[in-house]
Amino acid sequence: MDVSQLLKAMTPEVFERISTAVETGKWPDGTVLTANQRDSAMQAVMLYQSRHNSNAQHMTVAAGGEIKFKSKAELKRDFSTQGTLGESPEIARFEHDDI
């Protein structure tokens, strides 16, 4: 299968499943990826991101194929704007005995 066929066949849902498999090392049914499957899946994820990722996360492949590394300041800004309805995002805090 060539690159253009692969990209046409890969829907956002398929991308998410493959991406999760690469991250966890397992397919959705729990089967462990072989080294060859992991390498191929990782290449497919990077290829998909290089064509469709217009809002690159920290250390991802951005649209156009460039690897995007966000600075600490960019990450702080991104996290500070993720609250709902203008609220700042909350972090769950626990006392030692609560856990």
Automatic annotation (TrEMBL):
| Basic and acidic residues: bias regions | 90-99
In terms of domain of life, where is this protein from?
Bacteria
Pfam name, any one: DUF1315
InterPro entries (UniProt xref): DUF1315 (IPR009749)
Q: Could you tell me which residues belong to the region Disordered?
A: 79-99
What organism, scientifically named, is this protein from? Photobacterium angustum
- This chain's protein is named DUF1315 domain-containing protein
